[in-house]
UniProtKB/TrEMBL annotation, chains A, B:
This is Putative hydro-lyase N9A08_03520. InterPro entries: D-Glu_cyclase, Putative_hydro-lyase, UPF0317. It comes from the Bacteria. Gene3D superfamilies: PSTPO5379-like, PSTPO5379-like domain. Its EC number is 4.2.1.-. Pfam families: D-Glu_cyclase. Belongs to the D-glutamate cyclase family. The keyword ATP-binding does not apply. It comes from Arthrobacter koreensis. Keywords: Lyase.
Length: 269, 269
């Protein structure tokens, strides 16, 4: 592709996934909301093979928060979801955990790579945001140009082997008259978190202050809107922080892998 | 429960899953179609922990044939899908594979049990048959009182580690005027094989003779009916026969685990 002279001139939504990945590989660092319209973005969790069964079973037991779109075998750095790409370089920013502690947030993980690392590519709710907008529901964090607010909850995931942790949710304010539409539309995308896990009462799931998200940025909740909560693909990273594998690598929240899969591939009847 | 004096007196559809499992535990051997109406029946595949990641990844990569409903950790013999039950005794008949060869079809696997065995509980198309009937579509093998016909195809599954093998399908003849209804209805049950994988041309998927199924019994295909093929939960057993783990245990085709999950739990909008 021809490189734009400035980032401002870039039509992010019109890029192909491969073009977007190439920009990130070449060093561009940015949240990815709104990029490569119509293509599915994804969360990452990368662990050594010794932990891979526990992670995959954790995902199977917690499908709303950890819907697996694809798995790269131990040592593999590319696959059909990122044809011609490289999982070590093609995400704008990563998060590295050593023994459960966040130790770095590099823009490239080539120096951390090992031949026993297994990559899990996990669905992201950005996929259903276009469908919500198409359905007439405004997305506050897109309107405000910020990262979606995410919260650790008091809801525990189903554990699997050594993996356990809290459910992490993303939140979007929805007018009371459109809550049913939001449920109906997102329930048709089970592979990217599906229907909400909770509507309207943050205290009940252990969220004390919506104004202080654990990840991302706060958004205003206008009068007449309810906070609606969807399971979030940051959940496996929260489990990694509790379960302390020797090494784990995720994406930085909001800085997703842009895959070659169409959003529409994950729509069910 | 009070034991019926004779099997003929038994109202199979009215039994609870726990009552049905108790009968099988006590030695009754029978195919399970029509038992415990409204409750999901399931395929089994049980392997040593050393093979468990490959089996789970194979299932993740082949979700139409291997939709996982639940996993019992290494050595576990019960779980929420069979509350109070025992996976070693509660299925009417099992199939045991040693190095990929079928060596026995016992009615109890207690003698084979090891503390490193992991049990995968896999969705079964019996779940959507009631919905098809409710939609006015007759099910030939139920009308004829036989086991559903199943075929190995020439379609290869996506491999995972050491697991690879052919897609196995079940077949139901459907009147041409109802094929669209059959697709629409079953597509709403993705956790139990979902929409058909093929309609109308068995030769194209390597089935030479519909009259000679690889598992189950043949059914007539009346004039004006098309053979419709759904992915089948016997697929992991076919992979086990190719991939030759030291030990694997499945259910005998048609002799399913009756779970405590409602069929309706697997319905998507």
């Amino acid at each position: 592709m021809t490189k734009p002279e400035t980032l401002a001139a870039l039509d992010r939504a019109a890029l192909s996934p491969a073009e977007a990945r190439e920009l990130f590989r070449d060093g561009l660092v940015t949240p990815t909301a709104g990029w490569a319209g119509g293509y599915a973005q994804a969360n990452l969790i990368i662990v050594p093979k010794a932990q891979a069964f526990d992670v995959l079973l954790f995902a199977q037991r917690n499908p709303k928060s950890c819907p697996i779109l694809g798995v790269l075998d131990a040592g593999e750095t590319s696959g059909p979801l990122l044809a011609g790409g490289d999982i070590r370089t093609d995400v704008p920013r990563y998060t590295v955990y050593v023994n459960g502690e966040k130790t770095a947030d590099p823009t490239d993980i080539t120096d951390y790579w090992r031949d026993d690392l297994v990559t899990f590519i996990v669905g992201c709710s950005f996929t259903f945001e276009a469908a919500l907008q198409e359905g007439g529901i405004r997305i506050a964090h897109i309107d405000q140009g910020t990262n979606v607010p995410m919260y650790r909850t008091s809801v525990r995931c189903e554990p699997a082997g050594e993996m356990s942790g809290p459910l992490v949710v993303s939140m979007r304010p929805v007018p009371a008259s459109q809550v049913a539409d939001a449920v109906r539309i997102t329930s048709r995308y089970p592979a990217v978190h599906g229907a909400p896990v909770h509507v309207g009462n943050p205290a009940e799931i252990g969220i004390a202050d919506l104004g202080r998200p654990d990840f991302g940025d706060p958004v205003d909740i206008p009068a007449g809107h309810l906070p609606v909560f969807w399971a979030c693909g940051v959940t496996p990273q929260a489990a990694v922080m509790e379960s302390k594998p020797t090494l784990a690598i995720g994406h930085a929240p909001g800085h997703m892998l842009i895959t070659d899969a169409r959003d529409s591939a994950y729509l069910v009847p």
